[in-house]
Every structure is written in structure tokens, then in C-alpha cells.
Amino acid sequence: MRYRIVGDLIGVTVGSFITALGLVAFLIPNKIAAGGVSGLATVLYYVFKFPVGVSMFVINIPLLLLCTKELGMKFGIKSLYGTFVISFFVDGLATIVDKPWTHDPLLAAVYGGVVCGLGLGIVFRSKGTTGGTDLAAALLHKFVKISLGYSLLSIDAMVIILAGIVFDIEKALYALVTVFVTGKMIDVIQEGVTYAKAALIISEHHRQISEELLTRMSRGVTSFQSKGAYTATEREVLLCVVAQSEVSTLKSIVYSVDPKAFVIVANVHEVLGEGFKQADYGLP
């Protein structure tokens, strides 16, 4: 338990550093305010010359107090740590990274989103938060009863609109690119890249297909009952998860047994267990 907590704190610290690097090296110097507290702090920096890290921390203070009161002390303490660390790294890196890594706004929007998404994904995977819109969205979700997704979208939209007014519409459009890329990168870190496929197989020759997959591919096969909605006919459905490179082999085996088989192949973001990645998650 203690090692898990230490590991989570290290993850939050590393993720916050990477996120701060994305802000300092790409987004802030190119006036890309991609929503959230960091985006609002970027606008304040160019209007009033307030340090971005300090602004982020100050803006988060009332949110932290409200969240601690409404969502519990444990949530508040974890949020305080993440907020302090990322604010510290943003202003600290600003003294080291004295010029942007690119002056091309499109490259800045894309790579800023990639780096920030990587950092935030690590933070979230470590069960942490960097404050900001996470806190505001949690409060909106609790009091206004709208989903976390819509809460985050609403807050980010307001900040991007403000940035469009203060800077220009083009900067706001680049900010939307960053928001999209950041979200996709967070998903990759949280769920993993699509490296596996799940196949659902419906066939009258399910037993033979199952045996062929087990012996020729050494992949586990799960069988369960289904019923057709139109015919009301009960049939066995086979579920088999394989690597991307094995999809062609699987289809070849299935259709060599039953050319009329019905096969659905879907992306699987993460597979834990024998034959794939081993689970290493401890209890929270």
C-alpha cells in the first residue's frame, strides 16, 4: 500500500513536469490557450504579465477549498499536491526554456497537445489531478448535475472563447486543435494503443472453429449463448481476442471451416491477462 502511494506520487510529479514542459515549450509562447486554468492563466499573462504558474495556483485555491469541503479531504490533498507541483514546474521551466521550441502555431498546437496529453495521462493513470478544470467540472457535476464530460467541455469552451477575444480567432482555432490532440493522447495513455482485436464469431460449426483456434493459434476462446431477435434461434457465440497481426489468420481459420460464418472484429484498447499484458494494478 505504501509503495503504491509513493508510486502514484512519483507518477503525478513526472506527469506534471511533462505537462508543464508542453505548456512552456509550445503553448504559452505561441499564445495558445487550450482551455482550463492553464489557458486562463495564459490569457492573464499576456494581459497583466502575471506569471502563469502563480496564476494557475491562485485560480485553483478557491476551487481546492470548495472541493475539499464538498468532495472530501483525501481528494483535496491529492489535488493540492498536483496543483502545487505543476504550478512550480511551469514557472521553474519558464526560466530555463527561454524560447519556444517552434514558432509555427500549428506545430505548437499539435506537439503541445501531444506533450500535455502525455503528462496528464500519466497524472490520471496515477490517480492524481492537476486541479484546474478537473476541480471545476467535479463541482459542476455535483451541484448542477451535468456530466463530467459536458462540464469539462463547457469550461474549456469559455476559456477558448475568451482567448479568441483577447488574441484572435486563429489562436482560438489552434487551441481547439490542442484540446483534441490532448484528449486523444490522454486516451492512449489511459487505455493503451489499439494493439489487439476482439472477434465475435457466430457459426453453426462453432465447436470445430473453437478447436481450430485453440490448437492452431493457442488463443483462448469463450463461448456463450445468444438468440437471434428475428428468428428467435439460439446459437453459440465465440469470443476470441488476438493480436492485430493475427486477424488474417483468425479469419482464414474461421472461413475455412464455415464460409457462411458471421464475424465481427473490433478494436481493443487494453487486454490484461495470460497471452497479453499482465495486470500490475494494486488496490487503491
From TrEMBL:
<feature type="transmembrane region" description="Helical">
    <location>
        <begin position="109"/>
        <end position="126"/>
    </location>
</feature>
<protein>
    <recommendedName>
        <fullName>DUF2179 domain-containing protein</fullName>
    </recommendedName>
</protein>
<feature type="transmembrane region" description="Helical">
    <location>
        <begin position="79"/>
        <end position="97"/>
    </location>
</feature>
<dbReference type="GO" id="GO:0005886">
    <property type="term" value="C:plasma membrane"/>
</dbReference>
<dbReference type="InterPro" id="IPR003740">
    <property type="entry name" value="YitT"/>
</dbReference>
<feature type="transmembrane region" description="Helical">
    <location>
        <begin position="43"/>
        <end position="67"/>
    </location>
</feature>
<dbReference type="Pfam" id="PF02588">
    <property type="entry name" value="YitT_membrane"/>
</dbReference>
<keyword id="KW-0472">Membrane</keyword>
<feature type="transmembrane region" description="Helical">
    <location>
        <begin position="147"/>
        <end position="167"/>
    </location>
</feature>
<feature type="transmembrane region" description="Helical">
    <location>
        <begin position="9"/>
        <end position="28"/>
    </location>
</feature>
<dbReference type="InterPro" id="IPR019264">
    <property type="entry name" value="DUF2179"/>
</dbReference>
<feature type="domain" description="DUF2179">
    <location>
        <begin position="219"/>
        <end position="273"/>
    </location>
</feature>
<keyword id="KW-1133">Transmembrane helix</keyword>
<dbReference type="InterPro" id="IPR015867">
    <property type="entry name" value="N-reg_PII/ATP_PRibTrfase_C"/>
</dbReference>
<dbReference type="Pfam" id="PF10035">
    <property type="entry name" value="DUF2179"/>
</dbReference>
<keyword id="KW-1003">Cell membrane</keyword>
<keyword id="KW-0812">Transmembrane</keyword>
<dbReference type="InterPro" id="IPR051461">
    <property type="entry name" value="UPF0750_membrane"/>
</dbReference>
